[in-house]
Amino acid sequence: MLFxxxxxxxxxxxxxxxxxxxxxxxxxxxxxxxxRSAGRYRAARAGGRGIASTPRVLVTGGPYAITRNPMYLxxxxxxxxxxxxxxxxxxxxxxxxxxxxxxxxxAQDEDRLEQLFGDEYRAYRARVPRWPLLPDTxx
Length: 139
Hints:
By secondary structure, the chain is mainly alpha-helical. The chain has helices spanning 3-14, 23-46, 70-86, 89-127. The chain has one domain.
């Protein structure tokens, strides 16, 4: 949540009044909602919070039935909204950094889940895309 403040601070350093395209705030809110709701959904079913906790069960329902990574996707949608709202080069750089970071993190998550849940996870991975709406995103 610090990214919008950093982008606005950088914009204020260049201009007196940042120009915010308010329609994109809806995209940011949608991304934030997906991130938070997917996290609550997973925590209620698998226990724990974040990558440091070991899930009790493989969560495959709710937003996890549409994408294997709804929290990461929500974060990226939030940042895409920040790009649209500000047209900031810093927002683009932050999005690019997070995308690269999440690609690496997803690979670690997938290895860990395969070790924990074996065939159950492999079947889930075969039917649910890593990132929806992108071609060839099941692996």
